[in-house]
Fold each of these.
Amino acid sequence: MSISMYQASVPVFQQMLASLDAILVKTQCHLEARKIDQQAILQARLFPDMFAFTRQVQIACDFAKGCTARLAGLEVPVFEDNEASLEELRARIAKTLAFIASVPASSIEGSEERDIHVGSGERARQFKGQQYLLHYVLPHFYFHNTTSYAILRHNGVEIGKKDFIGNF
Amino acid sequence: MSISMYQASVPVFQQMLASLDAILVKTQCHLEARKIDQQAILQARLFPDMFAFTRQVQIACDFAKGCTARLAGLEVPVFEDNEASLEELRARIAKTLAFIASVPASSIEGSEERDIHVGSGERARQFKGQQYLLHYVLPHFYFHNTTSYAILRHNGVEIGKKDFIGNF
């Protein structure tokens, strides 16, 4: 009995990305009901040198995608960062969910000691699989998920922590 | 080879609470240099019906403390929610770190299927240990850590994501 690398990664990404998608739907409804331009949210940020909402959602997806691919020893799929609407951000989440669902659990199991290389040049980092997942990817993944949520709350979108946690 | 319940919990809490503590030190320096009253941060929130900074830090500590105790089958230590300064919040983090360090890894190992009861009355929830840790505690724990960070960034404290991730 123990936690497998698959259990600690893909189902967690699925829970949180599904909840992020549901939050985007609520955000669409909120904006439509008030005739607010989506750009007001897409370009919102909590401080001038922090990433805007669109980028936060893109990066949350990228940590799920990158981690799943690297743990499985696959090339990381490249998504263009060109989303310009909530619908397009939902499509990116859907693409991410489709990719991570396509990776067989068996290719991730046993990746605890796999060598993981991230970044390049001066920003290159090396990890073992378990360290990469628990101490690097999950903090970053949750950071961008929570910051996306925080930007929406700060802008008055009516969502709550239940929406953030989602269903599992 | 696999991830143990201990590895997926206590060392993660230690990383993130140590980084939160270091962030509080930077916040103290930031406020002192500018002669800003700590209350401006302690009572700051991102939206009127969200918790203020002090409460965010308290809850982050409580998820680490509660999870560690419950997985180990121990009574959850009760901390009064009476912190009124950054120094006192740092003391709460220190108390939390001392408690979770005092719990032997062996008492948490093997808790994947342990029955966990949280809350009471209508808010009572039941989990198995692994589900509780991966799908409930960690999302909540990271939520309050990130929201604490977001409140500081929103108020101009000069910290970055490296401070949030910390050392591991």
Note: The longest strand of chain A covers residues 115-118.
Amino acid sequence: MKITEETISVNTKHRNQMIDITSQVSSLVRQSPITAGDVIVYCPHTTAAITINENADPDVCHDILLTMSQLFPQHRAGYRHAEGNSDSHCKSSLFGCSEQILISNNSLSLGTWQGIYFCEFDGPRNRKVIVQIRGE
Amino acid sequence: MKITEETISVNTKHRNQMIDITSQVSSLVRQSPITAGDVIVYCPHTTAAITINENADPDVCHDILLTMSQLFPQHRAGYRHAEGNSDSHCKSSLFGCSEQILISNNSLSLGTWQGIYFCEFDGPRNRKVIVQIRGE
Amino acid sequence: MKITEETISVNTKHRNQMIDITSQVSSLVRQSPITAGDVIVYCPHTTAAITINENADPDVCHDILLTMSQLFPQHRAGYRHAEGNSDSHCKSSLFGCSEQILISNNSLSLGTWQGIYFCEFDGPRNRKVIVQIRGE
């Protein structure tokens, strides 16, 4: 098994934002020696996440973030965490801090409409994403 | 490391539906040459998901879908995406488009009550699921 | 590729509880012969989950559990599942039953503030967690 690992930098501009990182991940896969296997896209932050969703119509991301803001408002009676970002931590656990995408023929096996997103839930911040590519 | 990859077809009948695909995944694992490792069950669609939950009492799936429909109604003030399925995209990111199950002795290491479900959130549609089995 | 698998026991004390299992997982990684690769932390139960979130301020876990209890109350009109834990099954699918963490230099590559949590959503119970370590 071959394993390569790279880091992507993401600078976010808003408190809640979905940033398409598909092309960066795809480039790293094509530059790797791996033709079959998988890539793990891992977010080492606790108020952000990685998700896979539609990257054709940007209104989809707008509507996802709107929904999350309504269900998880920044302030909630009973919150104790003094940083004021308990909503961000909730969203991080619900979306999850990593995604795994299959690799065939040295390319990402994403569905037709799928893109890989870095989800910022407590920006703006300078973030990083770890990309581990594994296989044969 | 050995890697095999297969595709399962799933034809859904309702807008929201959980379909147990455990037996199909289990068969692919047993037919593979892999005795220890893992299987990735990957959904290449952006309005569907893969989850693991109880497969003993079908009322569990009923209650999960009821909960999701109440928290994520199809229409919400402010939605922009013209296809009318923004709720489906939200559910897809929250449940996640893949699950990973361990393999021991050429069999799935699921818990006693666990089954693998394809989650349709914008059906009825003809869907596919990619199953990658990896290990020794 | 080398693969090792171990089991951790977790005894929960409350109906909803997040228990930090980072040190146990970290010890298993250090005891393994694997220097680069990943670890899958897998929960074989359908009313519990695994998540990664902040382990510096315990108020973060308090606020996450508070949020989940408010959005997913134990009783909801229309629930059919007779065990009275449909909310627990929902939370399990939303948080997800496994997490994958990268390994570098025979150590977990967690972010500065990240810890690995076993999430109990229908306790108190005696639970187990499967830890599969894979790589070179």
Note: The interface with chain A takes residues 1, 36-38, 51-54, 57, 59-60, 62-64, 66-68, 70-71, 94-96, 99-102, 104, 109-114, 135-136 of chain C (CB under 8 Å).
